[in-house]
UniProtKB/TrEMBL annotation:
Record-annotated Disease resistance N-terminal domain positions: 5-96
GO molecular function: ADP binding
InterPro entries in the record: Apaf_helical, Disease_R_plants, LRR_dom_sf, LRR_R13L4/SHOC2-like, NB-ARC, P-loop_NTPase, RX-like_CC, Rx_N
Domain NB-ARC stretches: 168-338
Name the UniProt record assigns to this protein: Disease resistance protein
GO biological process, one term: defense response to other organism
Residue ranges of every copy of the Disease resistance protein winged helix domain listed in the record: 422-498
Species this protein is from: Arachis hypogaea (Peanut)
Superkingdom per UniProt: Eukaryota
Keywords: Nucleotide-binding, Plant defense, Repeat
One Pfam family named in its UniProt record: NB-ARC
Domain (Disease resistance R13L4/SHOC-2-like LRR): residue spans on this chain: 567-851
Keyword Hydrolase found: no
């Protein structure tokens, strides 16, 4: 993790030298020199990988991390101060000119102090003989520790088994599948501690399997795989005497010998705990394919391995449900005895606290079994499960097993995984927002040099999330209609791992009270109950502040806003979630390092002040502003060159609108549409000056009022790279809203648009040329549609998802061969279809999901 810390500091300094060249002109040489020093330190960091168990190396690495943080603080603070000086009027600059000179000398002194500290680190490194090759002797101890962990893990994992009958039957059926005589692979997939090895052992010892596969051997791989040791263990199981394999000291000879021993036999090989595809590449040739129905069963935490080995079946091992969790808990605590009635309630709550992870249940139950069997004692444990578990030596086995998955992550994924710890327990994480936070934090950056068609940072973030899912570190809570992950969760024990690793590296701190402000981590997650009041006034080094809790209102600066504007001047992320601002956000304009801002305004006035303030935040990439009023976007907001995503009046609006949709369906179309348009205002672009510099980086624009100005802005190509757009109808006194004409003149210019949402727009263009051919997803809500629009949308060559909701479709729908050539998902709201819907053969050839309730024909 420390590698990422120094890399972040280096990247930040390098970017600042380019992007803030004017602000840093006075100290440019000092910063460049500091940047060079950190590059050399980064080399040492990389060379120390695998040696950080040594206390001397660990201390040097920690000191380097602190220096990197300090360097980042000095430069970022200087940029803020210079910006404040430049924003003053002439008179203010005159009175503060002395301060400016002192500021220059102060930052020079600070940089020199950091460089002296770096020299001291180098001297101490030499003084204590900390060199790259001096710690090879520790590897033996490390390997011994790994082997010890493996042995303990086997004991714990296989000590108790409940259920697994359905699981084992499912896997055995695929191992025994007739009609396919080729050598095939079957896979058991799941996170650490779920019982993959236990299930594989149950299958291995099954009588049916033993009779079906006369030759069956077990190879324990692990992430510390050593080919010759594994092959030797297989040879022993195949019955070779020590005399026969004593001269086999070459890996290739061993593989040939294994192959020779298995030749002519129908075999089952279990390769337990594979971590990388190289293991399969290296071992598979040792197992002959003689078309006799032989099978290889692998267990892994990593989904890619299942794909790579071309497994004919992958069984994703589920978490235990509450019933099975309680059964396993009782079996460990009471054996064959029955649990006393008075202990059932606290006992079940303890078992449920493990969230279905068998390994955690076994360790917890083992600890409880040693305690007094009384309601008083069990209630004490139930109320402090985490504390009691940490005291247990066996609990280290659980954390170490889970940590193996973290240690195996590439450096690029480690900060992304640790960041999941900012969320509360059992929190359903919005993946889109999580990816935007990763980008704002600097975990994912687009390379300045590379092919023009290289993926966007958002696409890279999606790939990173998929990798964490594939490695069984993240659970999918829900999926989008296109199959991507919409929301996710992280198991409580993995969340604990994120928090402990983050705390050790000063990466992130989770706090529940006001002492949070005193923490020196780079990121702070404040998880409160009741109303939130930040009354401290300390300067924090945190770059991120995320608030999680109940709805709370800040009506006075002293309730929290004062602390944010004074204590988090270097913040890059400010996610205020359920906190509603009822006061002017004075000071927001000085948070110039902000890249991500999510804020709720209690009134139109406060919303306007938020928008006016952010026009100075030139680093801002993502804005979420929720306000239950229509607002007008200031022209200056479009001068923010880094701006990528703008969400306005979002989140709650769509949950609440779906609740009134059923009411609207019983009303006349004109009345229902008018109610929708006036219920929660969108954002107007009436102040935007057309013809000025284009907003090149903007990708998402959410909840914009469709009117003549919006149509003109879109038509002039002011947002050339827009990929997602949500438009809503605007209240008008005209007898017929001119929305159809607006859409005809504007949408076709958005040649990169992939997702389009139209809300409360009654009349849509029937000419297919009005819609960009790049569209892959269209959502139309809160309007009554002419059936002919379905025919028009059917001509869009790349449309994959179509969602329709609201007042319904009047008229008959006819889809002929060739319509909707790429459509995969068609979803209609209740009572949407009033007439006949006919689909001929050859229409919708790619359809995977179709939901048209109450269709007449």
């Amino acid at each position: 993790m420390i590698d990422s810390v120094v890399n972040f500091a280096l990247d930040n300094l390098s970017r600042l030298l380019v992007s803030e060249v004017t602000l840093l002109s006075s100290v440019k040489d000092q910063i460049r020199s500091l940047n060079d020093e950190l590059k050399f330190m980064n080399i040492f960091i990389k060379s120390s990988e695998g040696k950080r168990e040594d206390p001397f190396v660990k201390e040097v690495v920690n000191q380097i991390r602190n220096v990197a943080y300090q360097a980042e603080d000095v430069v970022d603070t200087y940029v803020v101060n210079v910006n404040n000086q430049r924003s003053r009027n002439m008179l203010g600059k005159f009175f503060h000119s002395k301060d400016h000179v002192m500021m220059f000398h102060e930052v020079s002194d600070q940089i020199n102090s950091i460089k002296r500290r770096i020299d001291e680190i180098y001297q101490n490194k030499s003084k204590y003989g900390i060199q790259q090759g001096d710690f090879e002797s520790h590897n033996g101890n490390k390997e011994f520790a790994k082997d010890s962990l493996i042995a303990k893990r086997r004991n714990v994992e296989e000590e108790e088994v409940v259920g697994l009958v359905h699981d084992s039957d499912e896997v055995i059926n695929h191992l025994a599948r007739r009609g396919d005589s080729s050598r095939r692979v079957v896979c058991i997939l799941g996170m650490g501690g779920l019982g993959k090895t236990t299930l594989a052992r149950k299958i291995y010892n099954n009588k049916k399997i033993k009779s079906m596969f006369p030759c069956h051997v077990w190879g324990f791989v692990s992430n510390h795989y050593r080919a010759q040791e594994l092959l030797l263990s297989l040879l022993k199981l195949l019955g070779l005497s020590s005399e026969e394999y004593k001269d086999l000291n070459d890996k290739e000879k061993m593989k040939r010998k294994v192959r020779e021993c298995m030749s002519g036999k129908k075999y089952l090989v279990i390769l337990d705990d594979i971590w990388n595809i190289q293991v399969w590449d290296e071992l598979q040739e040792a197992f002959p394919d003689e078309n006799n129905g032989s099978r290889i069963l692998i267990t892994t935490r990593i989904e890619d391995i299942s794909h790579y080995t071309r497994a004919i079946f992958t069984y994703e091992l589920p978490f235990l449900d509450e019933s099975k969790s309680w059964e396993l808990f009782c079996k460990k605590v009471f054996g064959k005895e029955k649990c006393p009635h008075e202990l059932e309630l606290p006992g079940k709550e303890m078992a449920n606290a493990c969230k279905g992870l068998p390994l955690a249940i076994i360790v917890l139950a083992g600890m409880v079994a040693k305690k007094e069997r009384s309601p008083r004692e069990w209630l004490k444990i139930k109320n402090n499960v985490s504390w009691y578990l940490v005291q247990e030596e066996e609990y280290r086995i659980v954390t170490n097993i889970l940590k193996l998955s973290y240690d195996d992550l590439p450096q690029t994924l480690k900060p992304c995984f640790l960041y999941l710890g900012v969320y509360p327990e059992d929190y359903e994480i919005n993946v889109r927002r999580l990816c935007q936070l990763w980008i704002a934090e600097g975990f994912i950056q687009k390379k300045e040099v590379g092919p023009s068609n290289s993926p966007e940072v958002e696409d890279i973030a999606d790939m990173y999330l998929d990798k964490l899912v594939e490695r069984s570190l993240v659970q999918v809570a829900s999926r989008r209609t296109d199959g991507g992950v919409k929301t996710c969760r992280v198991h409580d024990l993995l969340r604990d791992l994120c928090i402990s690793e983050s705390r050790e590296n000063k990466f992130m701190e989770v706090c529940t009270n006001l002492d949070a402000i005193k923490c020196n981590s780079r990121r702070m997650s404040l998880q409160y109950r009741g109303e939130l009041r930040l009354t401290e006034d300390n300067q924090s080094s945190a770059r991120s502040l995320l608030l999680f809790g109940e709805n709370t209102y800040w009506e006075n600066e002293s309730e929290g806003w004062k602390q944010i504007k004074n204590g988090f001047k270097l913040a890059r992320v400010l996610d205020m979630n359920q906190v509603r601002l009822c006061l002017s956000p004075r000071g927001l304009t000085t948070l110039i390092h902000l890249r991500f801002l999510k804020v709720t305004a209690s009134s139109r006035t406060i919303g306007d002040e938020v928008l006016a303030s952010i026009c100075n935040l030139w680093n801002l990439e993502t804005l979420y502003l929720w306000i239950k009023h229509s607002i007008t976007l200031p022209n200056k907001i479009w001068k923010l060159k880094s701006l990528r995503h703008v969400y306005l009046n979002c989140d709650d609006i769509f949950r609440e609108l779906t609740q009134i949709e059923s009411i609207m369906q019983r009303m006349k179309m004109e009345e229902a549409t008018k109610i929708f348009k006036g219920w929660s205002g969108g954002a107007s672009m009436s102040k935007m000056k057309i013809g000025e510099t284009k907003v090149e980086n903007l990708q998402t624009l959410h909840n914009i009022c469709l009117n003549a100005r919006t149509a003109s802005v879109l038509k002039k190509g002011m947002f050339p790279n827009l990929t997602k757009l949500t438009l809503r109808g605007e209240v008008t006194e005209l007898p017929e809203a001119p929305e159809k004409e607006f859409l005809e003149n504007s949408l076709q210019c958005l040649n990169k648009l992939r997702t389009l949402k139209l809300l409360g727009i009654a009349i849509l263009p029937l000419d297919r040329n009005a819609y960009p051919t790049s569209l892959t997803k269209i959502t139309i809500s809160f309007g009554q549609l002419d059936a002919r629009i379905i025919k028009t949308l059917g001509q869009l060559a790349n449309l994959q998802i179509l969602k329709l909701g609201g007042r319904g479709i009047y008229g008959d729908v006819d889809c002929v061969a060739g319509d909707f050539p790429q459509l995969r998902v068609l979803q209609c709201g209740a009572d949407m279809v009033d007439g006949r819907w006919k689909v001929e053969k050859g229409a919708m050839p790619q359809i995977r999901y179709c939901n048209i309730p109450h269709i007449r024909d």
